[in-house]
Specification:
- It is a single chain.
- The chain is 34% helix and 20% strand.
- The radius of gyration is 19 Å and the shape is globular.
- With 289 residues, it is of the alpha/beta class.
- It folds into 2 domains: 6-93 and 202-286, 3-Layer(aba) Sandwich (Rossmann fold); 97-199.
- Strand 11 and strand 12 form a beta hairpin.
- It has 8 helices and 14 strands.
- It has an 8-stranded mixed sheet with strand order 5-4-3-2-1-10-13-14, with helices on both faces. Strands 6-7-9-8 form a 4-stranded antiparallel sheet, covered by helices on one side. Strands 11-12 form a two-stranded antiparallel sheet.
Length: 289
């Protein structure tokens, strides 16, 4: 097995079954690697409070934590740990108040457009620091499994078709970009079937920022990194899941792995392994050798 100096990975659906599920197995697999100085980077759209129920600092030693990084909040926050084992943000991508309010207005205009033209109801989550979540399936509840379910995509397609949205998700992505241009903002819209997320940053910003730090401080290159996730699959032609945003010009030379069982197209270069959380944790354990 190739030996990696840094491993970037999604959390929900890749390292743990859900954010409320016990993280014991993931922690046990991570510890030996951190002890050897291998850099582990959790890349997730959630907040630090939702990673291992906010107890990361209690689950690892101070020495282990110096090799752990977090890229969270859809590009918003990049964390490292100090010598006392305390998490701190070393770089963020938080828009100023005016830009954030403009993002809110953009999403409300998208909501109004869908209601007026297609009689398509949505809900909007405004409470994120750098983006909004537009709920495209307000009657569907994911429960504790907050990552994309394969059945959701078919349901969303059927629902949009029934409302006359012939352009599918691509039409929504293009709508978000178009409305953003009216406010002078280049938005980075993404979609995981249930939610259309509209903001000014994404997982791309997280991986680029943390890789740049690892390159500067440790000399680690993209070729020495692995990137694991469960949401690479194509939602529509040319539109891929959130983990596909870990593939950037800066990271492309790395190795990309998908543990999802979902059928469908992946971005070029992604190796589909399946096996879910168990497959990823097995990789971590083998990487110890």
């Amino acid at each position: 097995m190739k030996k990696y100096k840094a491993i970037f990975f999604d959390w929900d659906g890749t390292a743990v079954l859900s954010r409320k599920a016990p993280a014991d197995a993931a922690v046990a697999a991570m510890k030996p690697l951190l002890q050897k100085g291998i850099k582990l980077v959790i890349v997730s759209g959630t907040t630090i409070e939702n990673i291992a129920q906010g107890k990361l600092e209690e689950l690892f030693t101070k020495e282990e934590l110096t090799n752990l990084y977090l890229g969270l909040g859809r590009g918003a926050y990049n964390y490292a740990f100090d010598e006392e084992g305390r998490a701190y943000v070393f770089q963020d991508e938080i828009p100023n108040k005016k830009t954030l309010l403009d993002i809110h207005r953009i999403c409300f205009e998208i909501h109004c457009h869908l209601v007026e033209k297609y009689d398509y109801e949505t809900d909007i989550v405004f409470s994120r620091p750098n983006y909004c979540k537009i709920d495209l399936m307000v009657k569907e509840n994911r429960g504790t499994n907050l990552f994309m379910q394969e059945s959701e995509l078919d349901l969303l397609k059927d629902t949009m078709k029934a409302h006359g949205i012939k352009g599918g998700l691509l039409e929504l992505i293009e709508l978000a970009s178009s409305v953003g241009e009216q406010y002078g903002i280049r938005v980075a819209p993404t979609c995981d079937a249930k939610y259309l997320e509209v903001g000014v940053s994404s997982k791309s910003d997280n991986v680029n920022t943390i890789l740049a730090r690892l390159q500067k401080e440790c000399g680690i290159t993209a070729q020495e990194c692995a990137f694991w996730g469960d949401e690479y699959v194509g939602i529509e032609p040319g539109i891929y899941g959130s983990d596909s945003f870990m593939i950037t010009p800066e990271t492309r030379a790395g190795d990309f792995f998908d543990v999802s069982e979902a059928t469908g197209e992946r971005p070029e270069g992604v190796k589909v392994l399946g096996g879910g959380v168990g497959r990823f944790l097995k990789f971590l354990k083998n990487a110890e050798c």
